[in-house]
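Hi R.,

Here's the input for the zinc ion complex you asked about:
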Amino acid sequence: MKVCPFCAESVQDAAIVCKHCTRTLPTPPVRTLTPDEQRRVTRTNRVMLATGAVLALIALVMVISAAVEPSALPSSVQGDDLTQLVDRVGQPDHDTSSEDEVPRPPFVTRILTFTPEHVRVVYRANVQMGAPPPYTGTWTLVGYADTMTNQRLEAAVARRRLATRARLAR
Ligand SMILES: [Zn+2]
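And here is the predicted structure with zinc ion in place:
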């Protein structure tokens, strides 16, 4: 378990999105410095590293925002983001929701996994905080991730990977 830096709740180590506050969790550093390298890092460098980490986080948030595709039509006409995806590519290999967790997290998330394509799609229930299920028709896209690396995927990349399924589903 790790602790979400935004809401301080515990989340799974592999989580890419906090199930409590739905924010995207920072990705872990690629490697840590050796003791020798650490000694050589000056105070100035530490400040620069911290600034870099903040900028990286801002960049990540911008990527997430860009990945979210707002619906052009009202949801009553088109179905929610999740329904649209399943209509297009068929049922996922795994479908998990935090709605049945006890206690239910304040923001409910649902994750569809397409195993062969290594695509994970994250949705949140677009309802008032603490509202009870069902959340049908409210699933709003948060973003995509690669199931192998847990890194964020751009929408175009996720769409390309799911294109084969999209053809089969028709
Ligand atoms: Zn959180």
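One thing worth noting: The longest strand covers residues 139-146.

Cheers,
M.
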